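User: Before I run my own analysis I want an independent prediction to cross-check against. Here's the chain; please return only the structure tokens and, at the end, one sentence I can use as a sanity check.
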Amino acid sequence: MIKNILIVKGGKFAEADVSRKTAINVEKALKYKGYSTKAIEPQDNLISFLNDNKEDIDLIFNALHGSWGEDGKIQGLFEYFEIPYTHSGVSASAIGMNKFLAKSIFINNNITVPLGDILDNNRLTIKENLKRPYILKPINEGSSVGIKLIKEDTDISEILKDNYLDYLIEDYIPGVDLTVGIMDGKTTGMIEVHTEKEIYDYEYKYKNNKTKYRIPNDLDEDIKKQIIFYSEKSYSLLNCRGIARVDFRVNLKSEKHKVYLLEINTQPGLTENSLFPKIAKNAGIEFPDLIDWIVKDAGLNR
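Assistant: Structure tokens:
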């Protein structure tokens, strides 16, 4: 029986603040559901804490995001201590976080993705392999951290001063952002995201109240089926667990491909502004029940 849950949150990387907001919501829901909780950040002697308290921890709720949180590293630590934890395992997390590696797997399994390549952050030999406009984003970040739309007049050298080692560059797909929620391999629902900008970036996810969300009830049935098929197939290919979110760009005006899978997020945010809770609520799943499901699913599958 799962009673005592350790929430791991925060960290020292780009998505630490988002992680802490996720943890606040998760802890409230867990307490509401009757669980006993403790919270810790990785830099606060996490290894020593796990070593000294592992017998008293029934499950770890991994509320981390981004580097070290959802890239397989922290999952490997949890595996070492043999403590059950939420969300996907080591390999699914590592592959899902590496956008180029995940994209390669999707391409090899006939899932349509934007054309793309790796751009080494070498300011002496910047080589752009795509025509502008194109998307530039760090290979190993989530929450749209660092994503940029590179237009004809954009000075890319200024952007590369952010010091990410490698970037993914990919075709800019005009159209609508759409994201799909997956629970245990099955589609829970989907939601369209509308912003005033050409891309849905970090600002419009967490800092702008003008972003609009809607259930795409007017999608052509064949397009909807393709989105669901791609979502569930990508989840299966990476051997994900628990919940995941699959992001798309849908270009209804395209004469060739209309549905493009952008990436899979093996550890979706659970903040007040996060998309997965919105999708779950539209499907009739209230937030405390969603968190309870995540915990029980993790307990069963470890």
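Sanity check: Residues 16-32 form the longest helix (17 residues).
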